[in-house]
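W.,

You were right to be curious about this one. When I first looked at the sequence I had no strong expectations either way, so I just let the prediction run and decided to look at it fresh. Below is the sequence, 98 residues in total, followed by the output.
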Amino acid sequence: MCKSEIFADILNIVGKETEVSTELILSSSKVTEVVDARSIVVFFLTEYGLYPEQIATLLHKTSASIRYLISTFESRKLANKMIAIYLQNIRKSLENEL
């Protein structure tokens, strides 16, 4: 499976699970729910082996902003307990999908 297919699958699954549209995830919105969903997308893309520069290109962001999302993900997860639940459900969906 190529990077763009992995990206599309992860983006769609995260969008369904978090109830944040894929358009909003890809937007420049700084609303907490949107940034949480974007962070989850970045988390799974790094887990699947994509580099921050590749993720930045796919999300139309800077690689610095992607590195920031990666470095602050654990504290974001601690602050919002729903993220852990989302991660669990998305991981199950990805196992079935990919």
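Here's what jumped out at me. The first helix runs from residue 3 to 18. And, maybe more interesting for your project: Residues 3-94 form a domain with the Chromosomal Replication Initiator Protein Dnaa; Chain: A; fold (CATH 1.10.1750.10).

Coffee later to discuss?

I.
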